[in-house]
Write a structure and sequence with these properties.
With 161 residues, the protein is an alpha+beta fold. It has 2 domains: 59 residues; 92 residues, no CATH class. 56% of the residues lie in helices and 20% in strands. The strands form 2 sheets. It has a 3-stranded antiparallel beta sheet. A two-stranded antiparallel sheet has the order 3-4. The longest helix has 29 residues. The mean pLDDT is 85.
Amino acid sequence: MKDWFAPRRYWKWTRWSLIAAGVFFCALYVQGYRNEWSAAERVDLWVYLESGVWGSLSEQSLTSYRLLEGVTAKKQTLLVTGDEMEAAAGENGEPTYRLTAEGSRAFVRLEWQRHEYNDRKLHDFLRQWVFHDDLYESARKPFFCALAAGGPGLMLPILSS
C-alpha cells in the first residue's frame, strides 16, 4: 500500500500523541472534578448525564431517579444546589454527605428521595441550578492544556525529517 499522505512512522507517532493527549485530558478533568466541583455537582453528575440521554430520546419520557434532597423545617423536600452540603466519611468509612453552615440555614437534614421526573425538565433544571450552565466550561482548561501538550508531539516527526 502506497503512503499517499505521509510515511507510516508519522501515523504511528500521531496516533500515540493523540492517545497521550487524551489520557492527559482525562487526568486533568478528573483532578478538576475531585478538587474544584461542589458536592452537589459530584452527587448529581450521573443523574445529569442519564437524564440528558433519556431526555434527548423523548420529550415526554419519565424515569425514576434517586436524588439527595434537603428537608426543610416544614417537611418540604428540595434539591440541594451549590455549597449547601459537603462530603464526609460515615460509619465504617463509607462516603456520606452532611449540611454545611449555609445548608443548615435552609434545611434540617439531608435525605435520599426516589421520584419519577420528566427527563428533559430534570436535565434542564440540573444544568441551570446545580451546574450553573458551566459543565462544558469545566472541560475548557483541561482541553487546552492537553492540546498544548499534544500539539508539539504531533509536529515533532515533521520537524525532525
